Every structure is written in structure tokens, then in C-alpha cells.
Amino acid sequence: MHCRAMDKRRDKRRNRIERMFGRIKDWRRVATRYDRSPTVFLSAIMLAATVIFWL
Hints:
It is a single chain. By secondary structure, the protein is mostly helical. The chain has one domain. Helix content is about 80%, strand content about 0%. The chain is built from three helices and no strands. The chain has helices spanning about 1-25, 30, 40-55.
């Protein structure tokens, strides 16, 4: 029974992360990798995550 509780908790966390990535991919700039520079791309991801967090 202890393993099932841990699996359920792990699945819940994984689902939250998957939903977050799905929301970030709604941003066209991030989904299409419009920015080729790694620094600018990371900045776009951070901006998208910040806006999603505050909504």
C-alpha cells in the first residue's frame, strides 16, 4: 500500500509538470524555437512561465 501512495504522489507531480510544458508550448515563439540563441530561448521560456504563473 505504501508504494501505491508514493506512485500516486509521483504521478500527480509528473502530471503538473506535463501540463506546465503544454501551457508553455501554447506560446508560439517557444513551441517553434523561433529564437536560435540559447540565452534568448531560455529567456522566452522564463517569460512564458512567469506569465502563466501569474494568470
